[in-house]
Amino acid sequence: MASLVQEVDSLDIQVIIDNELDPISPAAPDTVQMTGGSMGHVAMSAPRLQPGSRGDAVKELRMDHLCCSAHGLSIMVWLTSIGGEQTATRGDVKRTVLFDTGPEEDVWERNANRLKADVAQVDLIMLSHWHRDHSGGMLKAIKTINQAKQDKAGKGGNVTVDLHPSRPDYRGFLMGDKIISLEADPCFEEITDLGATLSLNDEAHTVLEDMFLISGEIPRETSYEHGVKFGMRYDKADGDWFSDEKIADERFLACNLKGIYISVSLSTAGSPKLTRHPTGKGIVLFTGCSHAGVVNTSRHALKLLNNGGETKVPLHAVVGGYHLATPHDSKQIEPTVKDLKTLDPAVLMPGHCTGWRAKFAIEQHMPGRLVPCTVGTKYLKRQPAMAAAPARAPSLWRFARCPRQPTFTQLRQRRFVHPHEFRPLVPPSPSSLGKATPAKTYPRTRKWLRRLFYVSLATGAIFVVDRQFYASSLTRTTRTFGLGLLVAVDYKINFRPNPPFAASIAAVHQRNAERLSDLLRHNGGLYLKIGQAIAMQSAILPPEFQKMFSRMFDDAPQNSWKDVEKVIKEDFGKSVEDVFGVSFTGDPTKGVMERKARASASVAQVHWARLADGREVAIKIQKREIAAQVEWDLWAFKIVSYIYSKWFDIPFYNLVPFVSERLFLETDFENEAKNGEQMAEFVANEPRLRNRVYIPKVYHELSSKRVMTAEWIEGVRLWDKEALTRPWKGGWHEGSPGSHGTPLDPPDKKLPSREELARKSVASLKIKPERTHWKGWKERGGLGLSLKDVMTTMVDLFSAQMFLWGWVHCDPHPGNIFVRRKPNGKPEIVLIDHGLYIQMTPKFRRQYATFWKALLTLDNKTLKDVVGQWGVNNPDIFASATLMRPYRGGNLSTQKGLEKLSKEERQNRSYEMQQAARKAIREILGDETKWPRELIFIGRNLRIVQGNNQFLGSPVNRLKITATWASRALAESPDMPLSERIRNYAGHVVFRLVLFTSDVVFYFTKIRQMLGLGGGMEDDIEKQMKVMAKDMGVELDQDLFQG
């Protein structure tokens, strides 16, 4: 700093936004509630009532005239330098700064209007730091201030905005294992577009004739002020979140208050005379959140305004957020208050993020210095709070606050409300009550019949309302709780070596599996999705439940066409014909659409349509009842899961909120469209997959939260092995219809004519043309593809999702995968249904790649280190569950212990072994707070891909391909240092040599399979896993490996 900040004579502070609003408490010393700030001012400024309309009432207090509190901060600061001996060269100068603008526009505009703030005086808007609760109202504030300046001066206003140049793309914080993002702060272009002058500064500087100082970065000196715990910052350039606990862009505002005291006396002419008494000086500090610590901030202000120690101006006041409210910050309260007491400010005005504990501690240790920072408070400082100040008359504003008392004559003239003589209440005499009559009696049976009638009537009414308006959500939830209680009681009584009410434990499992199966199918909808989610972890359940969950196919009857029309009408506000430009009467100028769904699942159904421009589309429409049922169903799922996990000590409830969140997102088709577009972008940027994988386009203009329109895909489902491998009959260098986004071939038959549409039932008519020319005569041909090429592409795709992109499709069952033939004879995989995805953080993605590489190279030290970070206590069991075969690289303690048991002991200890299986699951989960929730869905992906490979005859070495991608991702990771990448690349070369043994095993099983001496590699893996699971008391069903 070249020179000190100029001294100012007076300071006015008006709080526009704060977390607290207190319109009824009396004003504190040196404060006054402005119009709109207190209940009394609101009442006295209210419109008058018509005389006599409400007795003696004269005005009506309107609650909508009060201000609003909000999580944020915005303060108007006026500084005035009065002309006199010491400031004669400057004259009377008044400058105003708007310090921060609160969290959002509406509350800032409302409070500024209610407080009648003179925003036309604002010369400068200063943002303390880039956080939405301080910048959210900025654009509205700029617009309002510039307009007020124009209205007042008759010409366009041009307020200056002082900002730190380092604006983050997004800020947020870590909550558990989830990153919560805040809204983006206003960008520089938005600010300048409103006519504001931009001033970007990251170093300390003075503004407005050197009356204010704005700091740069605040140094950290104290040991206890650590910043924002778990603060995060997102950089678009890196595409990732980073720790941002310092909030280094925070700055403070400060001024040097001369602290004069004004006395009032009468002149000889009888008019008031003002006399100024210079008494002392002090620094007034304004801080937004004190993320650097309020003590660090105060010390830095003293250093800057005292020019590094050349002067001795004391700290007079600290105004704003002290950031001591959160549990992480509460430990700082005691040392903070202690050091603030050492700094000895006369006024402490904590607000916003300070918290009640810190305010209580300040008042306890520094009584009399705490001043409220509530919305509407105006703080006037024209004299210092010093004991040595001379005796003086009250200042003018104190006279203005004294209410005028009524005279004695006025009191006598007031009308009494109760002019009559007071008489106490006397009970009536018994004679005046008349003759007593006995009470009517009713037979007990009649009472119960009447009650039964009322109960039945109420139950029937609730049932009708629930069915008509809530899609039977209450009925479904009641059914769930009832059956859940029945199953829980059954297990509590009968889960023991010799069940009292069942032939065996297996019989108990069987009847409860059937009960749950009936419940899921009867409730339908999202319950089928919940059944599939439980099926991901069905290995921890008895075999009776595994068989039940393996039949949880995602199919359901389709909704009526009327329901389809209602969903489209509710989402778009128009009819089906208007939204998609189709006609059901054969209008040649419009498109056509099938009313009968081509596919129907638990949540949605798909209709084919051809638009007027010739595009063939698949229209996915959510079933109408899902929107009403989804929150009820997930709530019931959470409650039942919580009760079961506690009652039966099954460690899975911590996974339930994450599963519920994924299921809820699966009902949001806008989210599905975004997932699909993101995956298409990833594929397009990866040369190794660009020409082998295709993601259908989504047409956003024809989509909503419950309706998604995408291009129609002509292809062969993965489960149709014969169609994949039969000889190609479509011609040389020809591809199957629509391969890699090429326009679909003309149909083999024309669309139905207007007469046909009129003659046939449109609801049952299939309009979509079939394209089967590539199958040849009698449709005996196929795509002529190599199953090895098909499966290699599939494993490559899902491995890249896990290890390169961290964006994993978690429902890759054969129904969601189409296969097409390209003109060069190679397969093309088309991936649909992008509703269920998980995102892996870069750290977890690298950990998972390291884990897979260690699995295949039997690197036990690395394996134990990685799974230890995930809270897993038994690396062997977890590695076996991931490989879906016994892991041979650990200490084998689990397997050796199981092998010691004889066959007879294993059979006779069913109950004990099932208890041991639960213990093994708890060892896998270990510390549930560390266990990555994403592993649930990644495991589902791996199992389904393994089942697909097994179904096609194990044409590829899936484990080798997956591990190779893991090692390659570590070598190619762009966010690693170059030296580490070189080391990983060298390790990748060695790793490829190590995997040669895996190829030997694979080709051995392949030759044996060709000779008819056994199944493929995946069949061997399944057998090994079944044996190990059975040794642990778990019987795995065949369908578990089919995904």
TrEMBL record:
Residues 94-142 form the Metallo-beta-lactamase domain. It comes from Talaromyces atroroseus. Belongs to the protein kinase superfamily. ADCK protein kinase family. InterPro entries: ABC1_dom (IPR004147), ADCK1_dom (IPR045307), DHPS-like_MBL-fold (IPR041712), Kinase-like_dom_sf (IPR011009), Metallo-B-lactamas (IPR001279), Mito_struct-func_regulator (IPR051130), RibonucZ/Hydroxyglut_hydro (IPR036866). It comes from the Eukaryota. This is Metallo-beta-lactamase domain-containing protein. CDD domains: ADCK1-like, DHPS-like_MBL-fold. Residues 730-755 are annotated as: Disordered. SUPFAM superfamilies: Metallo-hydrolase/oxidoreductase, Protein kinase-like (PK-like). Residues 552-865 form the ABC1 atypical kinase-like domain. Residues 746-755 have a biased composition (Basic and acidic residues).
